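Sharing a chain and its predicted structure for anyone who wants a worked example. Both blocks are below, sequence first, tokens second.
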Amino acid sequence: MSAKLHFRTESWPIAGSFTISRGAKTSADVIVCRIERNGVSGFGECVPYARYGETIESVNEQLVAHAHIIEDGGDRNDLRTKMPAGAARNAIDCAMWDLEAKENGVEAHRLVCRHPPRPIPTAMTISLDKPEEMAANARLHAHRPLLKVKLGGDGDEDRILAVTASAPEARIILDANESWREDNIHELMMVAAQARIALIEQPLPAGKDEILSRIPHPVPICADESVHVTEDLHKLSARYDAVNIKLDKAGGLTEAMHMLATAHELGYSVMVGCMVATSLSMAPAVLLAQQAEFADLDGPLILARDRPHGLSYSTSLVSPPSSRLWG
């Protein structure tokens, strides 16, 4: 029996609001794919992202246009060659992983992980706000070992100092979301170095980051918007020390696994990141992150509620997914 692709849109409320340099949101809009074959269904979830020109409508259109790959008997490698990277391919790819695990009675982690998966520490995100509000939020999470702090350009020195003073024992990642400029990056990087920041993520806009190859890196710099798929890695090695691999950018777990292996071969550190989404989006990423230096997989913690059988979070440790959720 051939496979059949189904998909639906869901909206999950965020607890409060989530703000980065590009704006605030109060809900996470996701698309869930279901691939059915011989009475067995596999599931995958993706998040269309406007920064990459994606909308719910455009991703739905891609799913309709490429459903034939699966329905004609194609596999995950066919997806990589016949479908562009992005959210739509991610949802289908992860649904294929889930379907294969269920059909074969072999948990996905046995194919993804070198060793039995374990709980791993994940960053907790401090949303962009006024310095005093971010400091108060950081105090609430100061017991966590790793915080990711959203920045916005002007006023970031005060934000950095306020947060680091409020969580002095935590390792801190700064995520500028492309909001810094050539005329302030030197000063802000020195502030970050003096504050003993662990990592700075995407300080400059993608495509306007060449200066990073010519200036010192007192703090390691991680590419996010500048890197999507494996072939991007070679051209960025002079600019970045680390890369953020997200399944929605890479177009699925299959590509992300190739990307992680290549990144390590080229000497990058790796962060496995996420969009704001439910545990169904995070589940394959938790397996990928078993081999990464950083994990930023707190998406479900930002939501007001999660789906049944969601990932288990204990303080800052996230456990591998139950097979009742995925894989």
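Comments welcome. Residues 87-104 form the longest helix (18 residues).
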